[in-house]
Amino acid sequence: MPDRPNDSSTEPPTGLSTTPSTKAKTGPKKPKRKAAIAVFGLLLVLAGSVALFWNEWRSASQSATLIAGERAVVGASVGRVPPEGTAGLVHLAGPARPSGPAVDPLFAVTHDALRLDRVVEMYQWREFSQGTGDNRTDNYEPVWAEGRIPSERFRDRMRHTNPQAPAIASARFYPDEVALGAYGVAPELLDLLPANEGVVAAPGREVFIEGRAFRGEGSAFLAGSLANPEIGDVRVRHRAVPAGEISVIAGLDGSVLGTWTAPNGGTIAMAEPGLRTSGQLFGAAYRSNALWTWAIRFAGTLGVFVGLSVLLGHIARRVPPLADLQARLKGPIAVTLALAWALAVIALAWLIFRPLTSVGLVAVSAVLLLGLRALRARRPEDGLAQPTNGGD
Prior knowledge:
Strands 1, 6, 7, 8, 11, 12, 13, 14 and 15 form a nine-stranded antiparallel β-sheet that branches. The protein is built from six helices and 20 strands. The chain is flat. It has two domains: 114 residues, no CATH class; 204 residues, no CATH class. Helix 1 crosses helix 5. It is an alpha+beta fold.
């Protein structure tokens, strides 16, 4: 029988379980452990560098694709398909209608929608930690989540074990056809629209799947109890993309709207609810690309910083001059090196797309490294001399 989150007297009444993290007493650091720490730092630097290079290449390629799309896109009327060969990338805005209902055959759920989503969630343990080192505490709480959280990686695997994933999985279903005026809309465009409309399950109706009964209750089919769920219970909800006005920028294959391929090999397919101009859709795409670019830049630079901090600490114990510099500046050294390294990697990625930008980034990286050299040239006692008391 799976554990009930609130059955154990050792767990807080909120359903949150805590397990103090313990550490065994260790003696002096062994060479193997020191080598492992150095390898860990090196791997972080390499992983951050690869992420930075890939991210800049991806961002530049996506920008080139969007620029090509802006130049190629043409506005079209929803009531008439352009003659074949006269339009490759089109912008359309208008009411989208399904030819019939979207159907989930497993649960016999039908809905007049542009897309019907089946969302399968299991009630299971989730681990999160608070604090660090000896003050670290591992916490466990039961949550509804898609898929299965691998409890094999938990620190407390004995008391917090998640069952196997449900026999059914989340899925998407489409009507036979979706029309935007005289055009058909391909599923890859429908997948971009948010499913923000709930579908009420038939109350009391039961569906048996591999010997397990799912009963309609409220807005879901449940294998278990919604009011007092147990670990391993399964909840199946349905969400729909309602029919209505949408805006798309897509390639045209005959009369069907789908993905457009740019000359550089990149692809464009945009769809949003409501009436939007092509400028608004492209603006949102540029902002999304910029957001992802900066997020990955931050994550990659952080990885390089942590890796360099580990490596510097490892090397400083063996190189006295570096140990002296690190003792005085510590964090600023790793930050400066990480920024210089990140700028050099970004410059390498931009070399093909924007050579002048690449040269500028290399120059900034060199200035940062020269700043480190200037700091290294200062003696430890610089600025630390104590004033002397003069005598009469």
